Amino acid sequence: MTEDDDRIQILKKEVLLDEWSVVTKYTIDYRRGDGRHETQIRQVYDRGDGAALLPYDPGRGRVLLVRQFRMPAWVNGKNGMLIEACAGLLDRQDPESCIRKEAEEELGYRIGRPRLVFSPYTSPGSVSERLYCFIAEYSPADRISRGGGSEHEGEDIEVLEIDAREALGMIADGRIIDAKTIMLLQYARLEKLI
């Protein structure tokens, strides 16, 4: 509970979709800053929280990313094959355990000590997801498999080991358009990790 909780009262809650994710429609009484009340309708898309990882090799100036198909980008008129940081849903795991599992499945690397750097809401206007973002050093010796994701989950992931400067350039020229990846690469650059 926060001090602002008394400003909002749920009048009606209706589940619109409950399949892979849950979409809920809320009708609320909202007390504005000036004290007036108004009825508002909001929809919340909930698929759970997630974790993302940017592995970097400071000695070789490289980062590990993935390329995979993303339906929302494709239906929005973009190339659906996005370059991204490794990520996954928590699915009842803690964020660090999740990202270790995802690194092994998607990248084929066993990471040593991931470090949580931030945990933003991804799109708080309508999406409840909070994303726990990690960085971790890696080296070629940490590779345990080809990676590529979990086939039974429908994943078909290409592992990319990219020069860190090139990855930053891919943000500038529009080849990397995924928000979590941009944030993690920019963080690594600001902290002089890459």
Please render the helix and strand layout as text.
Elements (H helix, E strand, L loop, with lengths): L7 E11 L3 E10 L5 E10 L3 E8 L4 E8 L1 H5 L5 E4 L1 E4 L5 H13 L7 E4 L12 E7 L20 E6 H9 L6 H12 L4
Parallel strand pairs: 4-9
Antiparallel strand pairs: 1-2, 2-3, 4-5, 4-7, 5-6, 5-10, 8-9
Helix pairs in contact: 3-4
Write up what this structure looks like.
The termini are far apart. It is elongated, with a radius of gyration of 19 Å. It folds into 2 domains: 44 residues, no CATH class; 141 residues, Nucleoside Triphosphate Pyrophosphohydrolase (Alpha-Beta Complex). It contains 4 helices and 10 strands; from the N terminus they run E-E-E-E-E-H-E-E-H-E-E-E-H-H. By secondary structure, it is an alpha+beta fold. 25% of the residues are buried.
Oligomer: single chain
Distance between the termini: 40 Å
**CATH topology value of the largest domain:** Nucleoside Triphosphate Pyrophosphohydrolase
Shape: elongated
What's the level 1 CATH class of the largest domain? Alpha Beta
* Secondary-structure element series: EEEEEHEEHEEEHH
**Which structural class should the secondary elements be placed in?**
alpha+beta
Low-confidence stretches: none
For the residues shown, what is the average pLDDT? 92
CA-based gyration radius: 19 Å
Q: How would you name the CATH homologous superfamily of the largest domain?
A: Nucleoside Triphosphate Pyrophosphohydrolase
Beta-sheet strand percentage?
Answer: 35-45%
Number of β-strand runs:
10
* Second CATH tier, the architecture of the largest domain: Alpha-Beta Complex
The count of helical stretches stands at 4
